[in-house]
Design goal:
mainly alpha, single chain, 142 residues, Four Helix Bundle (Hemerythrin (Met), subunit A)
């Protein structure tokens, strides 16, 4: 089932919200790619695109946090680092350890991990930014 960004996921910042929208699209692309494990090059390309975009997004989000003097900046930055590390571990497993059959068998588990990886962070950690961002214009950017 396709994941859809909803207004309830907004942190009241256009740049962060747009990044989250794109990450949802990239996540959907990864899910589609995983449905065809015989096309490993497509899977790896989709995973790489999601990782690269997440990395860039985290950098932008952290710059905005610095700009607004977000009090939990260090903790949030640490979580970003851990998220990227967890993602790379999964990518390495898919690339070097899982067979096509294992990708088929573990599809639901992989998708659940990726959705949790993104959505849990947005809805729990990033939502803590919202009260601070409400003090600024929605178009505050880096």
């Amino acid at each position: 089932m396709t994941l859809i960004w909803r207004e309830s996921m907004s942190v009241n910042n256009d740049q962060i919200d747009n990044d989250h929208r794109y990450m949802v699209c990239f996540l959907n692309t990864v899910e589609l790619a995983l449905q065809e494990p015989e096309k490993m090059d497509v899977i790896l390309q989709a995973l790489t695109q999601l990782y690269n975009y997440a990395y860039e997004h985290f950098m932008r989000e952290e710059l905005i946090q610095k700009k607004i003097s977000y009090p939990d900046y260090d903790m949030h930055r640490k979580e970003h680092k851990e998220l990227l590390e967890d993602f790379l571990k999964l990518k390495i497993k898919i690339e070097n350890q899982y067979t096509k059959e294992e990708i088929k068998e573990k599809y639901d588990e992989i998708v659940k991990f990726l959705r949790h990886w993104l959505i849990d962070h947005v809805l729990k950690t990033d939502m803590k930014l919202k009260p601070f961002l409400l003090q600024y214009k929605k178009n505050l950017s880096v």
